[in-house]
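Annotated sample (chain length 181).
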Amino acid sequence: MGTPKPGQTLIDFITGKEIPNIGWEENRQMVARMLVENKGYSKKDIEVDADIALTIKGKPYESKVDLVVSMQAKRVLAIKCAAGSLNSCEREIIAAARLLDNFQIPFAVVSDGLNAIVWDTITGECLGKDIAAIPTQKQLTEKWGQLKFQSLPESRAQREALIFRTYDMEYVNVRRWREEV
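Output written by the structure step:
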């Protein structure tokens, strides 16, 4: 999954930068394109490789979240792009959405560009298992006042950090290679 495709690069749809075509990168490009072309989000509202910094048992742990969508200066979707089983990424992206900001990002999504699973971050409830379940910019605008931006209770933060790190460590070598290139 994290093996570089020798000599292959692509242009990131969001940033316009040349990047190595490794792991799930083609899937991430499909997701980014779908967010803009089909879901109505602006490229400027999509963060690529959003930094996440945690402290776990007194030790720092830093990583990235594949894509994060913001509206009205608030993060609303945290997205994990996968090349394999979407179900295997569930706990990682929900934990990331709970920890990435000073509030729980309302929606956690895992997608391979063709399929998706969407969760309510606060409750952990699955909201849908297809691309159509990813809310559009228009849908979120219409229910903006109903969205909850509540903080994660401190008593749960350490547990969520451990969950995120456990799943994320499977992808650390891929990220390090990307960053070194």
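Annotation: The first strand starts at residue 4 and ends at 11.
Annotation: The chain has one domain: 23-176.
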